[in-house]
Amino acid sequence: MREVGIDIADYVPQKWSMEMLHEVDVVVTMGCGDTCPYIPGKRYVDWPLDDPAGRGVDAVRPIRDQIKALVETLLTELGVR
Fold first, then answer.
1. Spatial distance between the Cα atoms of 32 and 58, rounded to a whole number of angstroms
2. Helices in 6-52 by DSSP H: which ranges?
3. CA–CA separation, 60 vs 13, rounded Å?
4. pLDDT tens-digit series, residues 33-73
5. CA distance 81 to 78
6. Closest Cα partner for 71 from 30, 42, 38?
7. Fold of 2-77
8. CA 74, CA 26: separation in Å to the nearest integer?
């Protein structure tokens, strides 16, 4: 991520709480299937991405770039961009 100007070195992934999910308009999942929480009335978008865990940087770059493209498309759809 640093290659594209984003420093995430001090961030640790965390699970969404149900309180957090009630505050959002769109819930983006990344291939979690039935284990994802479901709240009626929310828009759900699933992005089935390869898991980058344990992969080298050359394998992770395309996943990162795919996520960027998906986020940009979603922002356009939502009228944010």
1. 24
2. 18-23
3. 17
4. 667 777 888 998 999 899 999 999 999 999 999 999 999 99
5. 8
6. 30
7. Rossmann fold (3.40.50)
8. 10
